[in-house]
Design goal:
This protein is mainly alpha-helical. The chain has one domain (8-60). 65% of the residues lie in helices and 0% in strands. It starts with 7 loop residues before the first helix and ends in a 12-residue tail after the last helix.
C-alpha cells in the first residue's frame, strides 16, 4: 500500500470534488426538484466535480521530478 501525505486544505479539496460529483449525480437521479432545475443543478455539479478532479488527482499523485539527462 502506498501512503500519501496531504495537507488539510488539499484533503478538503479532494473530498469537495468527490462530493460535488456525487451531489450532481444525486440531483440528476432525484425526483424531488423540477426537471429544468434538476438538470441545471445536476449537470453543473457533475461538470464542476469532473473538471476539478484533474487538479485533485495531481495533488494525490504528484509527478516524480527527474531530470531528462539522468538515465537510470
Amino acid at each position: 500500500m502506498k501512503n500519501v501525505q496531504l495537507t488539510v486544505p488539499e484533503f478538503g479539496f479532494v473530498v469537495g470534488t468527490r462530493a460535488a460529483l456525487a451531489a450532481g449525480v444525486g440531483f440528476l437521479l432525484s425526483k424531488r426538484v423540477s426537471e429544468p432545475q434538476r438538470r441545471t443543478i445536476g449537470w453543473t455539479l457533475v461538470t464542476l466535480g469532473a473538471l476539478t478532479t484533474i487538479p485533485a488527482a495531481m495533488a494525490v499523485f504528484p509527478k516524480k521530478t527527474r531530470s531528462w539527462w539522468h538515465w537510470r
